[in-house]
Amino acid sequence: MLGELRSLSxxxxxxxxxxxxxxxxxxxxxxxxxxxxxGESPWTTVDAIYRQRLDELVVTHGLTGLTTEExxxxxRVWWRLSPWPDAVxxxxxxxxxxxxxxxxxASFIGMVExxxxxxxxxxxxxxxxxxxxxxxxPEVYRTAISLLGLRPDEVMMVAAHNYDLAAARREGMATAxxxxxxxxxxxxxxxxxxxxxxxxxxxxFEDLAARLGC
Length: 214
Fold this sequence. Notes:
By secondary structure, the chain is mainly alpha-helical. The chain has helices at residues 2-11, 18-26, 29-37, 46-60, 68-75, 87-95, 108-118, 128-131, 138-148, 162-170, 205-211, and strands at 103-104, 126-127, 156-159, 174-177, 200-201.
């Protein structure tokens, strides 16, 4: 993601602090979703939230000379994220025994495109868009359970965020913590360790697969 932004900046000869730009862009994520969850904003996808903020940042950071096509492509950079090295092999192992699906706050099409780009072997895709609200609202987890046609205790939420697992546990789901200590860069201070006694704490998706008998 940062590489694409730096490449775009270099092509146009811009003196852009790409890391700061990206931080400013990411910062809209949680506050905008919280406004939707509180009923202060109508339902809108994360793609629309990011695009509105991007249009603002293009102006405030002085990104002159960008074409509409270049801005459109940058807006879709979230669909082109490289997977963690353990993700694809771990998911392939888990698929031998379990149905594998994301439960993401991202848009449905965003997760479809991400799966295609990164080769993520999901069986299906469930997102907040199905529930028309965002995690950690309980409706999101209940929607996933309902769509899968299972009891809550037959569904395991796997996440790198303790808040996500806490919300899933409140709905009766099993929980597994797989930390991503560099998700937010070397200065990350949250979600470095499990904050509660989750059902499984694994080092990676391959470790998780082994612990679940795959």
